[in-house]
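Task: fold both queries, return tokens.
Query 1:
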Amino acid sequence: MVQTTKGFLTLPKDSDIDVSIIIVSWNTSDLLKACLESIYNETVSCTFEVFVVDNASQDDSVEIVRQHFPNVNLIASRENLGFPKANNIALKKCKGKNVLFLNPDTLILERAIETMHEYLEHNPGVGAVGPKIYGADNKIQFDGARNFPNLFNVFLEFSRVAKHFPNHRILGRFRMGDWDHENDRDVNSLDGSCMLIRREILSRIGFMDEDLFMYLEDMDLCYRIRKNGWIIHYLSAVKIIHLCGQSSKKVDHKSLFYTLELEAYRQFNKKHYSKLHGLLVQVIVFIISLDVIIISVTGSKVQFLTKRFPRFFSEIYRDKFINFLHWSLTPDRVAAKAVSR
């Protein structure tokens, strides 16, 4: 039996499948096709099964899978279930020793899945492993290994301090910016775009938290894995490409994604630290948003500033922080509205 946020589930009995691969798709048909092709091209020495859970895509994602990948276990939902719930549906059906959570906007390189599987097989104390992640620009994405979003890290991220000091040991600590990510290391958290976990661990700690509609579900899993005594390891020799944020680019109201990210920060802190930590996330967002709005409104009357920093003093920029301010005052209502859209 497996414990989840919604109760207990029965896991399938062990089989001879090494890896179960779960991909949750939403309006990324071309990228999904390339991702699946890379899996089959670069995975030859271990047995695997693939699940694609489609969250009511408006494009031809479902048709692409049916026509070109008949061996894939396709689960086509008529509604957008959210990322954790979609993964959990597939998890109930997985038979592999290890489970790979993989984004549809990724490309597997140089036998990455095989190497990660072999590492778990030879290192029984390691519960999860992740690769070095490259972006479309062929640069390493530091999201591959991160620290947890405690209050200090939330402040650094939301205030954009971390963006201006990405390589600082303290100010860039959320993405471990003082480390070049070129060597192996035990870490707190891996990026959910490509993360391999022992299935037996999921039977002990539970599946993904469905209260997190989107964002930080990977960190929540990693936190629970570490809390139960398992090591989480970053493998620098394993490489993938992640074309980050492709689904969100297809949405007109991108502030909704930012709102869901803030809600995930609040839920994570509330769940793993205390209710006060969750409330303080709201306070941090409220103070920063109010400051930005005031400075933007007053500064918009100064011609020199508007010419020098046009984006900061634009109405669109102010509207975004007005939405953040609204969320900080009524997070449950705003988050529920974002989910429904």
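Query 1 returned. Query 2:
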Amino acid sequence: MPSASDILKIIYAPQKAFKAIVQNPKLSAAILIAILSILVAMGSQYAAYSKINIQKTLPSLESQSSPSPWTSNTTLWASNANITNDTANSILAAMQFSIANGTEIHAELDGIGPADCSDSGSYRNLTIALQWTQPDEQPPENAVLVLNSSSTSYFYHDLTSYFAQVGNGTWGNLTLSLGPSSPEWSSSDAGASWINITSIVLEFQWGESARADISVFVDSLFFFSKDYQWLGSVLAGSLPILAFNEALSYVFYWILFTLAVYFITKIFHVQGGMKTFLTVVGLALVGWLIVKAVFIIFYVAVPPVYETFDPFRIATANANTTLFLDFYVYSSLFLPVWPIIITYFAAKNGFDLPPSKSLAVAIVGFLPYYVLFALSAIGLG
């Protein structure tokens, strides 16, 4: 088994360590570094997530493949209109309700909670994006949003004047306050209760003179809370998945860097088998481990950030949140820096290459990381 001093020597004296390593490569130290790196990477992820708090929503965005779950699944809705997903005309994920030669559209989203929207409840606001289209650009004569609290009792909000102002074919983003202290809502009867909101109904009616092929689009539909959810609790429940992902990522990069170093050194006529290069690169990745450990210290030291729910993406981001998230994303650019330095000494002292070729080996060996990062940044990775 490798000793701690063996691994430390790679850190503080790589120019002395790699001559013996190349002559007698052993994977045990590299494997130990890999195990420690995976554990430290998990710790770094957890430390980062433990500082992030996001505003709670219904539906929750945890483990959701869609940014707007309620408006991306047609099976959740009942309507007199034809229901389709509209990917071309959306904010997050739009639902289209269309009717031919008609004047009324009724759409209901059932089984949503129940949501407690009382003054002491979890959800005090509702966000929704709406759009209507009518060939003659005539707005609906009546537009109502209904929140059912039972089969017979409900609250309703008149949207007619709002729709007239928005205009034909234009998205309107609404955020409505909820609960007994919100006077813009009316109730059907005394039995309507804000504690138990179970479904959402949208009703639109045009005059007979406006009968035509009409459509209503719905997007970004959420209840959201004044409370925040600590993401550390979310990550804690998926540690096995996190461990698997970190291990897979580490092994992928270890092999990728090894292949890059192998091929560039072969151009320089360096002799050695794949075990030698796996060992050299695996030991160089001790720098990766140390940088991840520094990230843990940073995340522990910084204050928590609170991310306000903004489905319409129109709010100005909190400066602390922006700084934290930018660090979380772009700090990963520093991960290969120390391994590059170590690989330089490995090539120079272990493979007896001149400085210029050693630098080429070190840079080319870890260049694939930055290529993949750039592809990911532009949405191709």
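Both queries returned. Flag for query 2: The chain has a mean pLDDT of 89.
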